[in-house]
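Q: Can I see a sequence and its folded structure?
A: Here is a first one.
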Amino acid sequence: MGWEWDETLYAGSAPHYGVGRVPYPQRLADALRDHLGLDGTGRLLDVGCGPGSLTLLLAPLFADAVGVDADPGMIGEARRRDGRVTWRQLRAEDLPAGLGTFRVVTFAQSFHWMDQPLVADRVRDMIAPGGRWVHVFASTHRGVDGDDPLPHPRPPWDDIDALVARHLGPVRRAGRSALPDGTRGGEEDVMRAAGYAGPERIEVSRSEVVTRSAEEVVSAVFSLSYAAPHLFGAEVDRFAADLRGLLGEVAPDGRFSERLRDIDLVIWRP
């Protein structure tokens, strides 16, 4: 049997998102605004919103914004960050859930966790005439690999992944199950089969270099599904100590540099 979603997928990760994930840039919102002519009207639905990182960036472009996520911790964190947005704890597979229709529906680093054909079908009728579905392809926990000189050492991501594997085993964990082959792809085939047209593509460049503290890197690790705090059980403090020790060996002053990754916006019409 293949991997099936369960409610522990990101258990304990929500508090680490705001610390360990690099925020989406304002120019992402500007690019989407300019491309779609967003003018403060209509409604936004952000599916798999996590703690609201993208939702809150885009909300000013709409009259109303709704964020949905299956993880109660993520929704709790989102509500703590902003009470003006409507936050709902529910799975994407449970849509439309009486939420109405939307000018834009976004999926940021989330669609691969879902029953893609089912969600694509259910969301299609939630998109208002002239509206759009937007995939946001990004990697906000880590930067670009490379050997170009930076002000501080890069986080040792290969060694970090090896440390996770030593604690949890060589097969990638995901909730109560495992993903030996990684998360699924094939989004474009799913979208076309569900009757969407497109896509249109926008690249949001992010070549800037950021400085990150060791604690930010620790939180970045704990924000990942395959290193969520609950997976380590009673050994979570030992893993955290090992991780901090590894980071201290690479950067004794606790400062790291990373060059940020570009973001791709892939836009579909129902």
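Q: Show me another, different protein.
A: A second, unrelated one:
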Amino acid sequence: MQFRISVGGLCALFVVCATGWLVGCSRPTSSPGEGPGTSGVLSPGIIQVKGSDTVVNLGQAWAEAFSQRTGTQVAVTGGGSGTGIAALINGTCDIAESSRKMEPDEYELAKKNGVDPREFTVALDGIAVVVHPSNPVEKLTLEQLSDIFTGKIRSWKELGGFDSQIVILSREVNSGTHVYLKEHVLCRGNKECDAEFAESALLMPSSQSIAEEVAQNPKAIGYYGMGYISPKQKSVAVAESSEGPFAKPTIEDVVSGKYSISRPLLFYTNGEASGAVKQYIDFVLSEEGQKIVSEQDFVPAPPGKPSEAS
């Protein structure tokens, strides 16, 4: 008996076989929550983590170390704290990374979607205010920073610097760092304040893009998490008032509270973490995970503080 397979049929057969092979190789057959090396809640074999660009490099370092240790894949993507929180609310990630706390309206929307956000403090961060290394300005008060970012102060000459226009760089509005700076610097903690970044501010898509622009623009001023600080930018010392004390975003001054522009870095999960997601969070909060925090130039979470904050 002879069998004849057309070229088209042969191609179709190859595609079916190849697809089956790829599916079989791309994901293990184990179910979520069975133990190390299994899966996240959403994707068998992968824990999906989305959110803050401040945390993304740290998150990728955690993910690599955890994957090497357990075999569980952790996919980490940025886009901003708002993006991560929205993904959690919409059910498209296992963990939202955030550099700000969730807002009341976000909790309300989460509840409507059947999502019960749980918060974990995984590290601390000081927001560095950075200028080009050639800029002679070394220190600024919170009031001066507010006036710079709202556009009231427009020239570096008013601050003892060059006779040149200030180029303001800011993160986009879905960034937790943008929100934090607006609340704690532009508005100085006043919840009735309606201050906004100057219309002339250049909205940048990531912390890395701010770092790159400041490194090549002597007129620029920007901000990002302390993990992005490099010799290509200069962080200015900051104080509540002209009387001081002025401090830079160092581990010691963030822990002591001397550096006033600091905040917790957070994870959010839907309900109590379990299975591989819980194992990942436990790893992040472990001695090994917190050592990675220090290696990435952030500040370890305060010892003895409960991992779940709410």
